[in-house]
Amino acid sequence: MNNNTLKLKQLPSGWIKLPLVNCCSLIKDGTHGTHKRLNTGIPLLSAKNITESGGIFWDESDSFISEIEYKTIHRKYELEDDDLLLTVVGTLGRRALVKKSDRFTIQRSVAVLRCDKNYLISRYLYHLSASHYFQRQLVIRSNSTAQAGLYLGELEKIEIAIPKITEQQKIAGILDAIDKAIALTDTHITKLKKAKAGLLHDLLTRGIDEHGELRDYTRNPELFKRSPLGIIPKDWDISSVGFEFDIVSGFTLGEHRRPRNKKRKYLRVANVKREKIILDDIAELEANEDEFISRKLQENDLLIVEGHADPNEIGRCALVSDGAVNLTFQNHLFRLRSKVINPKFALFWLNSVWVRSYWKCLCGTSSGLNTINQTMLKALLVLVPNKEEQIGIVERIEIYTQRIIKKETYLNKLNLLKKGLMSDLLTGRVRVKI
């Protein structure tokens, strides 16, 4: 344990400072024993079952134990409503509250904290345990092995600032309301993404007719044909990435690319997400003018990720726009520059379920990294509706894309608001009216 522990600053009037051991009636970790795992029974949860958003998640893939073993583990205590669960091995500091309807037990990687109601309410401790101060205490007091772990003795020593119960209730209520808004917005985004995915599937298999309606294979089979990509509208062509695009690989990094005199900002794999480019952290490399010009990004270029440890992320594709124009890119990215096909339509196709499944089947590996080479990329098939239909498909999908962006922007604002409120309310910098 690092002795350089954080100290609480001067407390607001009416607040007290106590270590967790003095304001909790129970601090205990889960079972250390070896238990017979069953296919059904009582869930045996670990740190992985506590989510970042403060929930508890398990399914049939998790471990179960018998009723007899459960009673043995809990012969001296039972999990109660509003007990706080806190991850203390591996990923530290994820937390959730127990609900009466839940019946499970926990492994060593999760601790349970029960508030002494004379000092502390569980909802306040739930929010306080997510604060920067508390999370830093967990890290500082943990061991420094490959898998971080926190002993109960160190957890008990963490000091927290405690206002009166009425103030705790008010603070918890405000933060609960923000959490509810965040959860609701997140649900809306998930629904919009599912709706977008469903519409995209229909548009890429049925297309839209001259009246702007989805073609119907059941009613009008004569409007469709069989193809290597399945049943598609009969007027569509099938081409290849190699035919539709000019393809260029990025700069290979090394000592000779260390930025010195001719610095060029470039995009890495981490900057290229599916359908978006993240510009928060842009690196630089050295390149002369001739090298740079041939790899300088233009608006509506596409970037494709060459390799990834996660097979679901192979070949993810983003469109270059705004802030990414005039940047360059590293060698683990391919740049595709369209000859004729609509770049946004191509973006949706290259991120489609069909293409993602294709890469997963083709790029399976035991090396730990799944990669695409330029030959494989050139051979990838591409759907090609007529120009007007491509535009129509893009317009339909863009409606959902803009709705999602709007909701995500609102979600970011809520998260920033919550961060500010936690900093103000949990330190007493801003006092709530009682």
From the structure above, extract its key features:
434 residues, four-stranded antiparallel sheet, Adenine-n6-DNA-methyltransferase TaqI, Chain A, domain 2
Strand order of the largest sheet: 2-8-5-6
Q: Indicate the CATH topology of the largest domain.
A: Adenine-n6-DNA-methyltransferase TaqI, Chain A, domain 2
Which architecture of the largest domain per CATH?
A: Alpha-Beta Complex
Number of helices: 12
Give the count of structural domains: 2
- Look at the structure and give the CATH class of the largest domain: Alpha Beta
CATH-defined superfamily of the largest domain: DNA methylase specificity domains
The rough form would be described as globular
* β-strand amount: 15-25%
Structural class computed from helices and strand pairing: alpha+beta
